[in-house]
């Protein structure tokens, strides 16, 4: 009976500390600092930069070989008065980094366009640059966006560590606290460049 009381007390103590602990203090303050929309004759291109995404814990996870994915959500919306905005196009761009501990190199896989792009580097700074930037991504055909002055493009980023197999997902539960979400950033579509 005493063992049951002790187990219950310890469980209650741990549960209350998990609820009261300010996990937001450990969260990354990542944000999208630049969103540039370029309207060329045929396509609308997106350039963006993510800042504050790499904390010490995320760097440690990547360098230990845990695959890490940054997801960028892009939306083309038509704002409507007194009603929900209409989503016209929605795309997902994934940047995944895998560190090979034997070769001491980073493999970055970028998915979201027509075919995946694979980049390999030994430099950490270069890996960070590739993971936190979107360069000239052809988002949508300009034909889908007439009239241009009404539409807006929104971008949001999130990072999730890979899902661990069964016993590890309970033992390494703290990895999920490294995840982050940015707020939405939006931009109007400029006139076409001729």
How is the topology of this model organized?
Layout: H1 2-20, E1 31-39, E2 43-51, H2 56-63, E3 68-78, E4 86-100, E5 105-111, E6 117-121, H3 124-131, E7 133-141, E8 152-161, H4 166-171, E9 180-181, E10 185-188
Antiparallel strand pairs: 1-2, 2-7, 3-4, 3-8, 4-5, 5-6, 8-9, 8-10
Count of discrete structural domains = 1
The number of helical segments is 4
The poorly predicted ranges are 17-27
Order of helices and strands: HEEHEEEEHEEHEE
Overview in brief:
This protein has one domain (28-188).
Protein architecture, described:
The radius of gyration is 21 Å and the shape is globular. The N and C termini lie far apart (81 Å). It has 194 residues and is an alpha+beta fold. A hairpin with a 7-residue loop joins β3 and β4. Helix content is 21%, strand content 42%. It contains four helices and ten strands, in the order αββαββββαββαββ. Strands 3, 4, 5, 6, 8, 9 and 10 form a seven-stranded antiparallel β-sheet that branches.
Salient structural properties:
single chain; 194 residues; alpha+beta
